Amino acid sequence: MKPAIDAMRESEQLAIQALEGEGRAYQRAASEATSARGQIEAALRGTRRISE
User: Fold this and answer.
1) Which of these, 23, 20, 19, lies nearest to 31 by C-alpha position?
2) With 90 as the cut, is the pLDDT of residue 46 above it?
3) What is the pLDDT of residue 51?
4) For the whole prediction, is pTM greater than 0.70?
5) DSSP string of 22-40, one letter each residue
6) Total count of domains within the chain
7) How does 13-51 read in b/e, with b if 16+ C-beta sit within 10 Å?
8) Where does residue 1 rank: exposed (0-12), middle (13-18), buried (19+ CB within 10 A)?
9) Residue 52 is inside which H or E element, if any?
10) Band of the pLDDT at 16, cuts 50, 70, 90?
11) The domain containing residue 14 runs over which residues?
């Protein structure tokens, strides 16, 4: 019985690590998207100033 419980715990830990890694990846992607949006907005503002 103990080996089965240990295997379940190990499986649970692996699942938790995978979910945490996925969460970090989504946070990083969101942060990079926000940064890119800011850069695009700044570039567009610069383009508007040049055309005026």
Assistant:
1) 23
2) no
3) 67
4) no
5) HHHHHHHHHHHHHHHHHHH
6) 1
7) eeeeeeeeeeeeeeeeeeeeeeeeeeeeeeeeeeeeeee
8) exposed
9) none
10) very high
11) 1-52
Structure tokens at 22: 């996925």
- What's the token pair of residue 43? 């570039």
Length of the chain: 52
Q: To which H or E segment does residue 1 belong?
A: none
Average pLDDT over residues 21-30: 98
What are the C-alpha distances in Å from 17 to residues 3, 8, 22, 24, 32?
A: 21, 14, 9, 11, 22
What are the structure tokens assigned to 10, written together?
């190990």
